[in-house]
Amino acid sequence: MIDETGVFLNPLVRRSWAVRGQTPVIGGDGGHRKKVSVIGALSMSPKARRLGLYFATRPDGFFTADAVVPFLRDLLTHLRGKVVVLWDGGSNHQGPLIRAFLQRNRRLALERLPAYAPDLNPVEVVWSWLKYGQLANYVPDGIKELDNEILDRLIELRCDPNLLRNLWDGSDLPFPHLRTG
């Protein structure tokens, strides 16, 4: 599964606890749309059924097709054998650059998720965990600090197989089971 998201410099404000009578104040100027774009992939080893998390960021940038190709290339260096990628129908997932990359990398196959089905993509649950949980009410000093915080949180998640599995289970995509016989 592969998906992209953006995390804005201004905080995503969520309900919080505070001492009675002391309303929390969250900074941020509210006037700009600077963000860190993030691409992520959840992988599963077919034999061990172990989940992996791969990701990259683009501070104040976007993951167009010319940025998705290097991510796919990097993904192939970490994964063995045939790799099947499930993703949505975003424009950065198609076009001549992607087709040329697929022609050169026959062990990679792309499958499209049904239209308007983010509930079938466990990476969407990872983004929700990151933005609405880990980074809610977080006010960084700048785009570099936000990028570092995103990377730190995703590295911690990559090292927590139980949380990764729980996030997968938060999607509507069933976790594959081993076939016997």
UniProtKB/TrEMBL annotation:
Q: Name one GO molecular function term.
A: nucleic acid binding
State the superkingdom.
Answer: Bacteria
Give one Pfam family, short name only: DDE_3
Instruction: List, for all copies, the residue spans of the domain called Tc1-like transposase DDE.
Output: 2-136
Q: What is this protein called?
A: Mobile element protein
Q: Which source organism?
A: Frigoriglobus tundricola
